[in-house]
Design goal:
128 residues; mainly alpha; 4 helices; membrane; transmembrane helix; transmembrane
Length: 128
């Protein structure tokens, strides 16, 4: 069975788990705290968001084929809204966002965005 949504979900889980482990490994090597800055929540929320956004695009692929790029951008906007609601207030408690706080959010966001972009472009090329 060749289901792009299921394949993407499995790939996203594997990639983000690997990136999470590498991220923790780098923090450990540098002697930095491993589970601060809401790192686990960040990875989980980013995973859920990329799977949901890809799923919505998958469901809308036929009806809104020509608008999928804009819907993808709307999904990216949604991720930033979630960041500003969930993470930003916590990170700004001390009036500064540290590099570790930034990395806790941005690393899973960036890897998820790259995975989404590559997967979506391959998938859209097959639709044509």
């Amino acid at each position: 069975m060749n289901n792009p949504f299921l394949n993407f979900t499995i790939k996203a889980i594997i990639i983000l788990v690997v990136v999470f482990c590498v991220h923790l490994g780098v923090l450990r090597i540098l002697g930095l705290p491993l589970f601060e800055n809401r790192i686990v929540l960040s990875y989980l929320i980013n995973l859920v968001l990329i799977v949901v956004i890809f799923g919505v695009l998958y469901l809308l692929k036929r009806k809104y084929k020509n608008q999928l790029g804009f819907l993808f951008l709307a999904g990216s906007f949604l991720k930033f809204v979630v960041f500003f609601i969930v993470f930003y207030p916590f990170y700004k408690l001390d009036n500064t966002i540290t590099k570790l706080e930034f990395a806790a959010f941005f690393v899973p966001y960036a890897f998820g965005l790259v995975l989404e972009s590559i997967s979506l472009s391959k998938w859209l090329n097959k639709l044509e």
